[in-house]
Amino acid sequence: MAKTARVITITSGKGGVGKTTATANISAALAALGNKVVCIDADIGLRNLDVVLGLENRIVYDLVDVVEGRCKLRQAMIRDKRLEDLYLIPAAQTRDKNAVSPKDMIRICDELRKEYDFIIIDSPAGIERGFKNAIAPADEIVIVTNPEVSAVRDADRIIGIVEADQKGPAKLVINRINMEMVERGDMLAVADVLELLAVELIGIVPEDQAVLVSTNRGAPIALEPKSKTGQAFRDVARRLAGEEVAFSTANGGGNFFGRISKLIRPKAGS
What we know:
Layout (H helix, E strand, L loop, with lengths): L5 E6 L7 H14 L4 E5 L7 H4 L10 H5 L5 H4 L1 E2 L6 E4 L12 H12 L4 E5 L6 H7 L4 E6 L3 H16 L6 E7 L1 H6 L5 H8 L2 E7 L2 H9 L10 H13 L13 H15 L2
Parallel strand pairs: 1-5, 1-6, 2-4, 2-5, 6-7, 7-8
Antiparallel strand pairs: 3-4
Helix pairs in contact: 1-11, 5-6, 9-12
């Protein structure tokens, strides 16, 4: 009975980098590994995690209903259709972020910690109240960025805030990398992003149109066994669960990934 969940908040500096898709896929992959997982959509007013998981038609109560006492925590939890150990607590769609406080989030997570292995929180983008709510209960922070200058600059700002709040060091997932564009010099390379951000890399997810299809269908691509992108999300989940997983050479040459491993090894122990 000593089990206590790890609370992992997934955030980003700017919107549109694929943070909610990453939350859904990492949560599904962790549950598929045999963990009991609850994901919480903390993006009050703009909920999307329910759609990405294909659970939008099952919502009766939401996070604000729990906070304001209209339902018990268990009543707001929706069990996933495919994975019996994956649950969602959806955000309220018709309220603003002030309906929930950082203390509320800590209380809810403390109540869940005893029964689950992972609590994954989908944070709103930016640094306003919703972000503060999302990081308040976190044991670990995962930052999602794209390999573009504006996204990396915003991620750097988030890293600074996370460290100032003593929630760091953050971990990094680089999403939507296109190796052909990297090789042409039209996109930042993974090594460039790591040099700029200097945090531990736990995932490299390739650009893939199949992600859009899977998101529209409410079926996380992490559950597709033949998908390279699905494998990338499964690898992130395994690293979060404590496994040592080598970075795949499927999306680039061996030398490229050799350089990455040299860059990230010193960070892992920091």
